[in-house]
Amino acid sequence: MxxxxxxxxxxxxxxAPGLSLRATGDLSAKEERxxxxxxxxxxxxxxxxxxxxxxxxxxxNAFVAARGLVTATGEKNLFGxxxxxxxxxxxxxxxxxxIVYHLHTDNLDSVxxxxxxxxxxxxxxxxxxTPISTNRESYILDIIMDKGALVIE
Length: 153
Fold this sequence. Notes:
The chain is of the alpha/beta class.
């Protein structure tokens, strides 16, 4: 066999895994976690109010991560999950936007160990949003919780 052909075949075998990793990387880049933090809500606040719903609509089914103050926990069968944790985002409120997170989970341990007014950090999939007011300054974000932890400061 010609040494040039061997080198070409060897190069193709070595490069093929790299090409597949790059393709996978591009797909996973679309599913990066969106941090719902002060910077995110500052940009959201700068949007014209008429565009805010479509901005959130484009982010449905994305993985998100945020933190908030727990206001309520309880049993509520929504989105195929048994429990709901309700949080307010104090960082968004500082910018004049009221964001209420409804975290849906089947994990009773998560619900049972969270004290009210405790700071809770979570990640999950954004499945729905609901404007609370007609001026688009307040929203409920429904999230299927993947992970969550109580933040101790």
